Amino acid sequence: MTCHQLGGACDKELHANTFEEISEIGKQHGMEMFNENNVAHLNAMNKMRELIKTADSHVMKNWMKMKREEFNTLTDNE
Prior knowledge:
Elements: H1 19-35, H2 39-54, H3 57-77
């Protein structure tokens, strides 16, 4: 999956065997971009924070389910 597919700001490809692994790799990439003060990634992080703050748990569960299904679709095709 790409950073963008995980809600990020770039097309960097992230590789993992499980959704849990890709989530962790995505977080690590996000922290690297945060530490570099990457404006595009900071904006994407702020959007995610707002989504988390304003959405109820049902919305976030659906978002995570959708991302997990997308990951599984991509890994099934490779």
